[in-house]
Amino acid sequence: MTLDPTYVLALYVAAVVLFILSLRFMSDVKTSRWGGRSAALGMAIGVAATLAAYQIQRVDLLIGAILIGFVVGTPIALRVATTALPQRTAVSQAFGSLAVALVGAAEFYDYHTTANTFTLSVLSAEMILGFLTFAGSCIAFAKLQELIPGRPFVYPGKNFVSIAILLVAAAIGVFLVAEPSQTFALPVMAVFALLFGFLLVMGIGGADMPTVIAILNAYTGMSAAALGFVLNNKLLIVAGSLDGSSGFVLALIMSQAMNRSFTNVLFGGVGAKVVKAEGGAAAAQARPVQSLSAGDVATILENARSVVIVPGYGMAVAQAQHTIKEVSDLLQEKGVDVKYGIHPVAGRMPGHMNVLLAEANVPYDQLWEMEKINPIFPETDVVIVVGANDVTNPAARTKPDSPLYGMPIMNVDKAKTVIFIKRSMSPGFSGSDNELFYLPNTWMVFGDAKKVLSDLVAALKAS
Amino acid sequence: MILELAVNATVTTGAPTAIAYTSQDLVTNLLVFVMATFLGVELIRHVTRLLHTPLMALTNAISSVSMIAALIVMSETTDQTLLILATAGVALASTNIISGFILVERIVRLFKSKPKGKPAK
């Protein structure tokens, strides 16, 4: 006996409400614990209703598949380090998009004799999207995990070749819609879609990963929504479009924070800019900078009343977040006001810096967004920049010929004193030399972020 | 244009599809899609930037409702190859769902407000 379709729909409505509520709960840290829980409940209801409505004969396969989900999924979720969250997100997008691509293929084989033009068109588009997202996510993972170099892979005519490959995949898709019985074309289309996804993400640099991850997230959602159209299943459509719009909104926030368009992130020549700017950066090394030792920094900090710490991806690389927390604890004990200023694209995925600092037990009310912290800098005594570079470069405001010009930055140069912890004078991802280094109120502290901060902790304790 | 094409195809050919699907269903689905997208944009805009990382884990898990599509294929097909494809789909999607929700819970728990009188070393 199967469940009446009306009840199934009613249960789907409950699942949709829970999904919407779960996103609503994420608007505030205080309610966020209910975010995951309500969505999980919605998912359980949706899956249970589906199982009740459609009788699955091969229960053995079903149980086996779900068991695999538990055995593989649980350790991933429990063991992944917070620094590796971007990689984990890429893997999960790879899984999700491969799942929709495979199911799309299964549906195509299943329905190709009876389905109408619309269903076949949606299936073709969905498979192209699914396979290209799968390949793209795999490359994003390899880049984030540093299995392959993070710099963009560029060659003459790169965009022309990529778009030609996508057009071939689309042409095969159209052919499959016109001649659905020619199923041999399906794997060929899949290969071209995979190739396009591979080349697309190979051509994108490590610093653009927050945007790429968000766009791939959107694609996974869109292909899930497409499956909903094929199966006339509204739960799939709603959940897929919620995920799709989430990915696009995040990608938009990320690209705006870098002052670049989607197309510029996906097809732009950031790699070319790096090569061009290297000469300039080398020439600029002769310009004088002022540097200090960790001991001197301790004296400056002790005499400050307000300190803002600006962390970047370099902090995560040096695993310095716990040491930063120690510095800020010691300063707070001495009555210094400490805040953290977080640029939207700091880190390798949206919100990454916040998670790293939260894990180091920094209370979230000390984490300030760029728009809120920028007006405070003129009244700030000392800013400590750790592992961030381009997002503090005043050239973004003042030099129209800089590749960074127009990008919203942390206005740390307005603070009374800037302490910049950095290994060397090398430029950031954009390849531009940081004007901040040469300002009279900037003091450089050269060395590994964790080492410098540990010395600082020792100096603060000694005094 | 796609919409027009599709509606015509359903109306004129009236081909018996495996999924009972009328042009009216199609329009309703488009409505659902458009409204859910707009709602999604509004909801995500109001998500605090602090939580963008757990948000991505959450939406990733939610989008794995595609598991439902895999379950439907599993129930309808007897073909060995298709059964394998659909089972793989269920395995991949359920991995995402399970790891996604556990991870959201884990990350969200990291965020704490004021220090509770924790003595610094």
What do you see in this structure?
The complex is a heterodimer of chains A (about 475) and B (about 120). Chain A starts with a helix and ends with a helix. With about 475 residues, chain A is an alpha/beta fold. In chain A, about 60% of the residues lie in helices and about 5% in strands. Chain A has three domains: about 1-80; about 85-270, no CATH class; about 280-460, TPP-binding domain (Rossmann fold, 3-Layer(aba) Sandwich), CATH 3.40.50.1220. In chain A, strands 3-2-1-4-5-6 form a six-stranded parallel β-sheet. Chain A has helices at about 5-25, 35-55, 60-80, 85-110, 115-145, 160-180, 185-200, 210-230, 235-255, 260-265, 270-285, 295-300, 315, 320-335, 350-360, 370-375, 395-400, 450-460, and strands spanning about 305-310, 335-340, 365-370, 380-385, 415-420, 440-445. Mean pLDDT of chain A is about 85; it is low at about 270-285. Chain B has about 120 residues and is an all-alpha fold. In chain B, about 75% of the residues lie in helices and about 0% in strands. Mean pLDDT of chain B is about 80; it is low at about 1-20. Chains A and B meet through α1, α2, α3, α4 and α5 of A and α1, α2, α3, α4 and α5 of B.
The structure class of chain A reads: alpha/beta
SSE order of chain B, one letter for each helix or strand: HHHHH
Shape category of chain B:
flat
Stretches of chain A where pLDDT is under 50 for at least 5 consecutive residues are 269-284
- State the helicity of chain B in percent bands: over 70%
Q: What is the count of structural domains of chain A?
A: 3
Straight-line distance between termini of chain A: 78 Å
Domain count of chain B: the total is 2
Q: Care to count the β-strands of chain B?
A: 0
User: How much is the average pLDDT of chain B?
Assistant: 81
* Helix share, percent of chain A: 55-70%
CA gyration radius of chain B, whole angstroms: 21 Å
Number of helices of chain A: 18
Structural class of chain B: mainly alpha
Oligomeric state of shown chains: heterodimer
* Rg on CA atoms of chain A, Å: 25 Å
Largest sheet of chain B: none
Strand content of chain A: 5-15%
